[in-house]
Specification:
291 residues, mainly alpha, 13 helices, 75% helix, 0% strand, globular, disordered N terminus
C-alpha cells in the first residue's frame, strides 16, 4: 500500500492545513529573511575567513598551516577526537541500550547525568578538572608524585573533551531506540538469542544511521571545543594547544593572516563534517520512512 501514501505537498490547497496555505508573497518574504540571516551569520564569516587566509597569497597560507606549532595543534586536535569520540560512542550506545531496553532503578538519574554537560559551562567543567587533578587539587599531588600528569597535558585535554561531548551519541540514540520499542529484541530472545548476539544482529542494524549521526555530531564538537580545553591545557605552544587555542594565540599576537589560515583548516574540517552529517541524516530519514 506504499502507493496510497500521500504527502502534504501533494495535497490540493483545500486539503492542506491552513498554516501551509500562505500567499506567495509571504513565502517569498520568509525565505528571503532566512537566506539573509544564513548569509549574514554563516556564509559571510566563511568568506571572510577564506579571504583573510589568502590575503598575502598562497605561499603565506601554506607557510602558516605548515608551521610546526600549527601542525602540532592539528595533530593534538585529531588525537583528542580519535580517543574521545570512540569512547563516547561506546558509552552512548551502552547507555541508550540500557535506558530504552531495560527497566532499572536510577534510570532517570542516568538520563540527568547524561544531560549534565549541556547545562554546565565548559569553562566550569575545565575548572573542575583543575580542582581534581591540578598540582593543588584533590588528586593532583598523589598523581604527580607517581609520575602522572593530567592537567596542562594531553590527558587533561582528552578528559575535558570527553566530558563536553559524551551526551551527543546517547541523546541521538535514545529517542530513536524508544521509537523502535523492544519487539525485535523480544522476538530474538524467544528464538534463543543472547545479549551480545541480540545487540549486534538486531539492535545495531536498526540504529546504525542514528549512531553514525551521533558520532558525527560528537566529532564536530570534539574538534571545535574551546572553553574546557582552554582551562586545562595551559596554552603550551607545540604541546597542549589544539587548533582553536592556536588560532586564539595567533590572533592575540596580531598574526591575523596566520590565524585565519589555521582557522580555515578548522572550517574545512567543519564543512566535511557537515557534508557527512547531511548524507547520514538523509539515510536516517529514508530508513525511518521505510519503517
Amino acid at each position: 500500500m506504499a502507493g496510497a501514501v500521500t504527502t502534504v505537498t501533494e495535497l490540493s490547497a483545500e486539503q492542506r492545513p491552513k498554516h501551509l496555505n500562505e500567499s506567495r508573497a509571504v513565502r517569498i518574504t520568509l525565505i528571503t529573511i532566512a537566506l539573509l540571516f544564513v548569509g549574514l551569520v554563516v556564509v559571510l564569516p566563511m568568506i571572510t575567513v577564506i579571504a583573510q587566509a589568502f590575503r598575502k597569497g598562497w605561499e603565506a597560507y601554506v607557510s602558516a598551516i605548515s608551521e610546526p606549532d600549527a601542525l602540532s595543534a592539528l595533530r593534538l586536535t585529531l588525537l583528542t577526537a580519535l580517543i574521545a569520540v570512540p569512547l563516547n560512542t561506546l558509552f552512548g550506545a551502552a547507555a541508550a541500550w540500557a535506558i530504552t531496553k531495560f527497566r532499572f532503578r536510577g534510570k532517570n538519574l542516568l538520563i540527568t547525568l547524561i544531560d549534565l554537560p549541556f547545562a554546565v559551562s565548559p569553562v566550569i567543567s575545565g575548572l573542575v578538572y583543575i580542582l581534581l587533578f591540578g598540582a593543588q587539587g584533590l588528586l593532583g599531588p598523589w598523581l604527580i608524585d607517581h609520575g602522572y600528569k593530567i592537567v596542562f597535558a594531553t590527558p587533561g585535554i582528552i578528559l575535558a573533551t570527553m566530558f563536553v561531548t559524551f551526551p551527543f551519541v546517547a541523546r541521538e540514540l535514545i529517542p530513536l531506540m524508544e521509537t523502535q520499542g523492544t519487539q525485535d529484541e523480544e522476538a530474538a530472545v524467544s528464538l534463543g538469542a543472547k545479549g551480545w548476539r541480540i545487540f549486534f544482529k538486531v539492535t545495531l542494524p536498526n540504529i546504525k544511521w542514528g549512531l553514525l549521526y551521533g558520532i558525527i555530531l560528537c566529532n564536530a564538537r570534539a574538534m571545535g571545543e574551546f572553553g574546557a580545553v582552554s582551562v586545562v591545557s595551559g596554552h603550551i605552544r607545540g604541546e597542549t594547544n589544539t587548533l582553536p587555542l592556536h588560532i586564539e594565540i595567533l590572533y592575540n599576537e596580531y598574526q591575523y593572516t596566520a590565524s585565519f589560515a589555521v582557522a580555515s583548516l578548522l572550517m574545512l574540517l567543519a564543512i566535511v563534517t557537515l557534508v557527512v552529517k547531511g548524507l547520514i541524516e538523509g539515510r536516517l530519514v529514508r530508513s525511518r520512512h521505510k519503517e
